């Protein structure tokens, strides 16, 4: 049985004509068949065509090649061809120009067949010919740099570096063994997700375990532990857990990698700000660490906060930038929720007042955003499986969408705290909120929660490629949504296609003419946890919960972020439990994912290890 790669989902006619099929469900069939006024033959069962029996075909090829070799061995050897003066001169000239060349490529020579191998190469007299076959590790490195990095240049002798494009310290980032192993682990798993070849998956896990071992050995050396390559290796190991995690334990492993990176930043101290690479990775870790602290209701690590404040005071960070203003608010939200969770803030009125204060800061930040950060709302009754509530958002860029969802995440948490405090105060004896204005605050709080949930849902279509699918339908399907509805299954061809990943990043310190290593985990992780928070809230309706579960499962399958599948399973369990027993114990939404007591604080020495 031969694995044939991911099969085409198109109908038989479109496959024969080698054109794109939009896979509109029967009885109407695809748009191409409808335009040609022919009956669509339908779609095959993909499980039946993943493998093909090639035994008879291979046997025939082997027998044919064996006969050819016997015939060739019985014939007299051919005399070597004589070189003409012109060809001799040409050959000698080539030899003088490149005597040290070990690879010669000649146009029109197909090389040896895969069945004859080295013998055919020797018999053909083409001893100087070498096949361009890359190793799995080389392919993994290429996949990693192509899909998980942006503006990466490591070679100090590259033309861009010699031309002076970019800061000088960007060309000194070394790829040590632990960084190399972590990059190849992520790249190999990406190849597995792309090709479905199980060999790549096994190799990816072996590389991951090697990377864990090599990184832990490197971190025992203080000089190596404080290098940029060590911090970047830990970030990439966390990325590996994000894209491969299949169990709830993988969420804990991701947390440990983030905590380890935060501990490394604490060890590096002021040195973190000396290079552009270090400053870039500081922002990366700060973003992931904020998500982790908010999820687990723990205080943001003070050493990392001090380094960020030093970056601001040194003028490295512009405090007026919306990203950094939001970062400070998210730190305050994380610290406030940590005090609330550990009963250091228990007065209901104090909880409501502080929540309203932080929420007002976020609303003021939203109002102060420049026009380039604003999104556009598109109203449509079409495709309700993807576009719920009758509208969706179109953001100018990937970072803008993430900033808006970050603000919504904070507001969802604050209003959730406020609602619980109000309910507790109403039920107290005597009531803690005797003033009638708190009834209006409660109503406004509940309405805000539903509006924030709807806005998060409206941000999802652009993330999962809906805009590209609409453009294709308008182009080939005559713009008929009722006849050609778009479903999540039809979006499998458009993962992350509605954001231009090469646009200027407003979050970077140095961007113009600069090539920086960047690990794209912040945005994807934030989207997953924002959706999970929406599905896990007390006020969330059952249809919204089921929609969130379906979208998380789609992201896990279509985009290769396995953590999304884990979160979808957690919400399924929650729904099943609610069906059996109404109500449940109070606790942070992260507590249902892992046991918080199992996760060490990010500023402990034990978390330096990966």
TrEMBL record:
* Region of interest: Disordered: 58-98
Q: What is this protein called?
A: Putative c6 finger domain protein
The Zn(2)-C6 fungal-type domain is annotated at 10-40
Q: What's the domain of life for this entry?
A: Eukaryota
Does the record carry Cytoplasm as a key word? no
Signal peptide limits = none
Any one Gene Ontology MF annotation carried by this entry is:
DNA-binding transcription factor activity, RNA polymerase II-specific
Give the InterPro entries listed for this entry. Answer: DHMBA_Reg_Transcription_Factor, Fun_TF, Zn2-C6_fun-type_DNA-bd_sf, Zn2Cys6_DnaBD
Q: What are the UniProt keywords, alphabetically?
A: Nucleus
Q: Which residues form a coiled coil?
A: none
| Compositional bias ranges of the Low complexity kind | 74-93
The record's CDD domains line, in alphabetical order, gives: GAL4 (cd00067)
């Amino acid at each position: 049985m031969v694995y044939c790669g991911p099969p085409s989902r198109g109908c038989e006619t479109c496959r024969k004509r080698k054109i794109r099929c939009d896979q509109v469900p029967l009885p109407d069939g695809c748009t191409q068949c409808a335009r040609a006024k022919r009956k669509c033959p339908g779609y095959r069962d993909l499980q039946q065509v993943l493998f093909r029996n090639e035994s008879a075909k291979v046997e025939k090829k082997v027998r044919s090649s064996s006969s050819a070799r016997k015939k060739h061995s019985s014939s007299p050897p051919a005399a070597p061809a004589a070189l003409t003066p012109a060809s001799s001169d040409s050959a000698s000239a080539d030899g003088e120009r490149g005597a040290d060349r070990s690879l010669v490529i000649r146009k029109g020579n197909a090389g040896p067949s895969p069945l004859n191998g080295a013998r055919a190469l020797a018999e053909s007299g083409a001893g100087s010919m070498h096949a361009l076959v890359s190793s799995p590790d080389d392919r993994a490195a290429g996949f990693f740099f192509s899909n998980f990095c942006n503006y990466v240049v490591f070679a100090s002798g590259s033309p861009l570096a010699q031309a002076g494009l970019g800061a000088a310290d960007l060309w000194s980032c070394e790829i040590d063994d632990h960084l190399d192993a972590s990059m190849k682990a992520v790249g190999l798993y990406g190849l597995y997700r792309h090709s479905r070849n199980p060999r790549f998956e096994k190799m990816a896990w072996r590389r991951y375990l090697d990377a864990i071992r090599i990184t832990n050995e490197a971190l025992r050396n203080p000089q190596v532990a404080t290098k940029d390559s060590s911090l970047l290796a830990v970030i990439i190991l966390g990325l590996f857990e994000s894209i491969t995690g299949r169990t709830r334990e993988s969420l804990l492993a991701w947390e440990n990698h983030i905590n380890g990176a935060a501990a490394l930043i604490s060890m590096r101290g002021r040195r973190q700000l000396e290079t552009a690479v270090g400053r870039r990775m500081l922002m990366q870790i700060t973003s992931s660490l904020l998500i982790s602290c908010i999820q687990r209701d723990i205080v943001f690590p003070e050493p990392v906060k001090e380094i960020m404040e030093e970056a601001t005071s040194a003028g490295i960070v512009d405090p007026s930038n919306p990203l950094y203003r939001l970062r400070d608010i998210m730190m305050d939200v994380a610290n406030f929720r940590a005090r609330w969770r550990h009963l250091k803030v228990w007065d209901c009125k104090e909880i409501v007042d502080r929540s309203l204060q932080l929420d007002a800061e976020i609303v003021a930040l939203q109002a102060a955003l420049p026009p380039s950060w604003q999104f556009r709302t598109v109203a449509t009754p079409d495709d309700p499986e993807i576009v719920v509530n009758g509208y969706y958002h179109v953001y100018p860029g990937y970072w803008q969408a993430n900033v808006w969802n970050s603000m919504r995440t904070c507001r969802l948490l604050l209003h959730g705290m406020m609602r619980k405090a109000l309910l507790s105060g109403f039920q107290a004896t005597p009531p803690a909120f005797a003033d009638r204005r708190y009834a209006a605050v409660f109503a406004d709080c509940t309405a805000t929660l539903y509006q924030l949930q709807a806005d998060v849902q409206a941000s999802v279509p652009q993330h999962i490629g809906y805009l590209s699918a609409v453009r294709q339908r308008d182009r080939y399907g005559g713009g008929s949504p009722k006849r050609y509805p778009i479903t999540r299954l039809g979006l499998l061809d458009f993962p992350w296609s509605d954001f231009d990943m090469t646009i200027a990043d407003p979050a970077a310190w140095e961007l113009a003419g600069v090539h920086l290593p960047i690990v794209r985990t912040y945005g994807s992780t934030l989207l997953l946890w924002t959706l999970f928070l929406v599905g896990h809230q007390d006020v969330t309706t059952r249809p919204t919960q089921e929609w969130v579960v379906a979208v998380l499962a789609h992201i896990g399958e279509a985009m290769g972020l396995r953590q999304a599948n884990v979160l979808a399973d957690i919400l399924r369990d929650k729904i099943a439990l609610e069906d059996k027993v109404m109500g449940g114990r109070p606790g942070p939404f992260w507590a249902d994912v892992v046991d918080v007591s199992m996760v060490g604080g990010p500023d402990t020495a034990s978390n330096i290890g990966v």
